[in-house]
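Section 3.1: Structural characterization of target chains.
Under the original work plan, the team committed to producing a structural model for every single-chain target entering the pipeline before any wet-lab resources were allocated. The record below documents one such target. The sequence was received from the expression subgroup and is listed exactly as submitted; it comprises 230 residues.
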Amino acid sequence: MPGRDRRDGRATRWAGQREKRRAEIVAAALTAIAEHGPGVSTEQIAEHAGIARPMLYRHFADADDVYNTVALHIGELLIAELAPTLIRPIGSAREMLTRIIGTYVVWFSQNPSLYQYVISRSMDAQHGGRHLVADVREQISGLLRDLLTGYIVLLQGDPRIADPLSFGLAGLVEAATARWTAVARTPLDRDELIAHLAGWVWGALDAALRDVGVELDPDIPLPQLSERTD
């Protein structure tokens, strides 16, 4: 059916153009947030995208759709930044923790308005029945849980502690980093914060491992988990 094929082709091209334009508007929104802060308006987002505000709604259902799409993208950026340190960590336990926490703290320090934007959306909007910020936290904690589970099994400990432990450790780092970012004058510089957080997290992790009969030297290189299963 040639006529239908042409209609289907046009529909496919339009869908692709719409997604491309949505992505461009989301990128413009990140610039607008950096300039105007987490309270940025849809009018300011439209201005940075080079379009009139009503034109936004040719590509998004409403203002909430704009805000939620941008917030989800910000979460994806943070997870993409962290994922390599959590999926394929290398070195000793202390080096791994310092690298993971350092990546997190550096991203926060460079993008404080983006984080606050996601938090602000979690207060008054939901995506699929779940708070946006909770989804980001769960994905990060889930990656950490998988990492901890792999090493706890390798070290012949009880992997059931990995889930609550990972969420607790991730919460500690997030809360401390958010507070450090929010305080205009802090006695700690960024590297000091990373070093302290790595020490605190190792202390909690060491205590948890000892509870399940595992003693680990934090400065001895650990095998890469992927190498054990290839």
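The longest strand covers residues 126-127.
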